[in-house]
Amino acid sequence: MSNVVLIYGGNSLQSRLKGIKDYAESYLKEQSISYESINVIDLPATDLITANFSSSAILDANEKVEKADAVIILSPVYKAAYTGILKTYLDLLPQKGLKGKAVLPLMIGGSFGHLLAIDYALKPVLSSLGATNLLSGAYVIDQHVQRAEGNEFILDEEAKERLKGNLETLVEELNI
Ligand SMILES: Cc1cc2nc3c(=O)[nH]c(=O)nc-3n(C[C@H](O)[C@H](O)[C@H](O)COP(=O)(O)O)c2cc1C
Known about the structure:
6-stranded parallel sheet; two-stranded antiparallel ribbon; about 40% helix; globular; binds flavin mononucleotide
């Protein structure tokens, strides 16, 4: 069984958000914690925008979430909030689909101007999905993530520190 599921709400796997996801996954790997990913952009677009609750792809994704002990939600800041892409999938989770799970929000933005988007935009939705163990979350900005060859990314120390602290807390929650 996978302990952690990562829900990737970016519109491209070439985004610097992918660098954050890669960092989170390698941290989990180091800790010997199993994980699975849901890339919302890989789910059928028609099912997402028509809110097709009976779609097999959506049901498979929901099963991954149901089995997980912890969920990492990743999104870039778009227009001062999380992406519409992410919301199309969150809308298809069961009413209390995050109940009983540790939930860690991770966001990237162009600047720190929307640092609070985690708190005023993303967290209320996660709470409404039943998340009561909602970790503080980390916000990274573009300039802290450099693109490298082969869709690899290099995070600077500040970004790593923010992410690592949150991932450590998540792992502590899993070990309770
Ligand atoms: C449509 C759109 C809206 C955006 N809105 C914001 C915003 O309101 N605040 C912000 O800090 N960054 C904003 N950004 C920047 C992204 O959050 C983020 O920096 C970007 O997705 C990561 O860059 P990359 O995908 O090019 O690697 C926006 C980007 C796009 C494409």
